[in-house]
Amino acid sequence: MPDTTTLAQIDAPLFDRLMEKVSEFGSTGDGGVDRPALTDAHKAARDWLCAEFRQRGYSVLTDSVGNLFGRLDLAGDDAPLVMVGSHLDSQPKGGRFDGAYGVIAGLVAIESWRAHCARNRITPRCNYVVADWMNEEGARFQPSLLGSSVFTGALDREFALSRKDRDGVSVEAELIRTGYMGGDDAPRPDCYIEVHIEGDSHMERSGAKIAPFVRHWGAIKLRIEVEGKQNHTGPTPMEDRQDALLGAAYIIAKVRELADQSKDTLYTSVARVDVTPNSPNVVPGKAVLFAELRAPEPATLSAAEAALRAALPELARRAFVTAEVVGTDIRPAGKFDARLVALAEQAADRFALPRMRLDTIAGHDAVALNAVLPSLVLAVPSVNGVIHRNDEYTSPEDLKAGAGVVLDMIRRIDQAGGCLDTAAEAK
């Protein structure tokens, strides 16, 4: 009889090899990587991933916005489809685990399950797909979660293709240049699982090794244009200056003030400012701010946005400039699928891994997918809570533990024939 009681184990050597290799693409030499979406380094990483898929018998699919999928059919054509994955694009001078870990862990979990089934004469009941979403980070092209949001229908494809980077190069042009303007129909999974490093120190402080995110915070991202008048920084009298960067500075301080007034319930930032002409001897004539508001409650977000918009005219007047919101991206708050949360916790218990529940303040592709199908992000601890920089680090043991939990989740889902209710209730 097939052995369905022996726990499947993650293929640790395979995980180590793939994780080490993917970290080479865009390596900064100091532990980090620099491969924003559709750069040459990102293309090289994706080309390598495609080769890994093909070598293992996966069908390689690329949809019309550059999302990349490796599909493995182990069951019949009508069998449930389980998707795992994340993204290979990074922040400029970012860390090597953010995103890439989820792709590699997902691939290794599927490969480990396939090998376990072969060893124990188990007939799989589900098919599998690994996703590498296009432009999750939103570093080069805005907004973030671009590929996964087109996948779910939250964003229009033509809108996504028209996004441009600082140099005026479009997503469409770079998809064509890198060879990832595909035409395949995207797989339509029955559920989606993503594993990620935490990016905070809650887990490290508590000793937890696994943490399913039960909620995702909402976000409002505003692009604010401040218009002044370009002039000389020397002879132009101070009282005559219309300094767009000074107006931007007042707005930036206001954005921080909003968070200080709503401690722990509102996170804010202005992490990018584009200044024109950006010369040391010229009073800036224009500044474009990328402001973010994040909160778990819609009312908190709405109130913060209203307060910021209301403050703009007076803040601009102080610098003798004008300020206008010219773009708004909204990501609603929500809850991840409770059955997948239960499966992650049961897997953690099975491997005797201490666990806790968390919210995710950051965006993930699973946040986009959660609007249309059962989805989950689960986290492993990051040392000192570091993320989005070169010294981002998670121990090999913790990385493999997270991959092992994903493996056990897909084992349970497979044995339940894809039924999440049955999988979550099984002992």
TrEMBL record:
InterPro entries xrefs: Amidase_Cbmase, Bact_exopeptidase_dim_dom, Peptidase_M20, Peptidase_M20_dimer
GO MF term set: hydrolase activity, acting on carbon-nitrogen (but not peptide) bonds, in linear amidines; metal ion binding
Domain Peptidase M20 dimerisation per the UniProt entry, residue ranges: 216-317
Cofactor: Zn(2+)
Keywords in alphabetical order: Hydrolase, Metal-binding, Zinc
Binding site for Zn(2+) 1: 87, 98, 196
Cofactor binding: number and manner: Binds 2 Zn(2+) ions per subunit.
Residues binding Zn(2+) 2, per UniProt: 98, 137, 388
PANTHER family: ALLANTOATE AMIDOHYDROLASE, ALLANTOATE DEIMINASE-RELATED
NCBIfam families in the record: hydantase (TIGR01879), PRK09290.2-1 (NF006772)
Similarity field: Belongs to the peptidase M20 family.
Name the UniProt record assigns to this protein: Zn-dependent hydrolase
Species this protein is from: Pseudotabrizicola algicola
Organism taxonomic ancestry: Bacteria, Pseudomonadati, Pseudomonadota, Alphaproteobacteria, Rhodobacterales
